[in-house]
Q: What sequence folds into this?
DNA sequence: AATAATACCAACCGCGGCGCG
DNA sequence: ACGCGCCGCGGTTGGTATTAT
């Protein structure tokens, strides 16, 4: 069955997004919500295909995206989940609040796949020596870039800057605020990781974990929200 | 200082799943 | 039951930053 291309490519812009485009997209979604990607660009006045808009939003502009280096705990979790799920990046990302499938996929391809291939998960001491070269990113967040560079037309060079600013998932923020004002994300993450550790297989009953994990997925509820 | 090689990551592409008429 | 269109996923590509020579 032949499929028509998702959108006509004629007159469509490609490549890096400009601050102006980012702003237009964010603004549109803020007002109208996400979805209807096909018609979104037209309505938002963007010369982009819907797919591109969706990707940009999901991987970059979403306010709940947590940017910055993947922590060791997150890394361990990714490795474990990958062992269970394979390249199901969206599922894996679903277990890592604030992380996108694209980000995890990239991280896996550039760091973890090499490391995991040959040996088992490294110890923390190994980790430092094994760790692939890290760029000395200067800590820009893209959202900062967006706000500070809103001189339109200028392309946002989103890459090559690892940022230190953390964007909170609203759910996390809510739970965190339930916990207490200054316990914030760190505590939340600890709690979250504890809950993962409770769920993750201790080698023997992987099946058990797998089924409870799948049930969890089926319920459509992130485990971290429960704890 | 210049150039090449490598690492990293945003964005693109094509396909499959699913819902709807 | 079938075809069509939209959405989402996973693999791949391309451009830039960083490091090595």
A:
């Amino acid at each position: 069955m032949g499929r028509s291309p998702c959108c006509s490519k004629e007159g469509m812009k490609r490549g890096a997004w400009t601050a102006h485009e980012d702003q237009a997209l964010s603004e549109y979604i803020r007002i109208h919500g996400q979805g209807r990607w096909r018609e979104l660009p037209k309505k938002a006045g963007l010369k982009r295909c819907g797919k591109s808009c969706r990707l940009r939003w999901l991987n970059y502009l979403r306010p709940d995206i947590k940017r910055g280096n993947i922590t060791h705990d997150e890394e361990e979790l990714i490795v474990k989940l990958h062992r269970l799920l394979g390249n199901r990046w969206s599922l894996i990302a679903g277990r890592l609040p604030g992380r996108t499938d694209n980000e995890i996929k990239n991280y896996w391809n550039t760091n973890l796949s090499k490391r995991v291939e040959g040996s088992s998960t490294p110890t923390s001491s190994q980790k430092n020596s094994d760790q692939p070269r890290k760029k000395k990113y200067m800590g820009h967040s893209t959202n900062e870039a967006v706000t500070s560079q809103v001189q339109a037309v200028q392309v946002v060079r989103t890459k090559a800057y690892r940022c230190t600013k953390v964007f909170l998932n609203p759910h996390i923020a809510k739970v965190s605020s339930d916990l207490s004002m200054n316990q914030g994300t760190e505590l939340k993450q600890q709690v979250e990781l504890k809950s993962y550790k409770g769920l993750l297989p201790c080698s023997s009953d992987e099946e058990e974990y797998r089924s409870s994990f799948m049930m969890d997925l089926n319920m459509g509820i992130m485990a971290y929200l429960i704890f």
Observations:
- The radius of gyration of chain A is 19 Å.
- The first helix of chain A runs from residue 19 to 32.
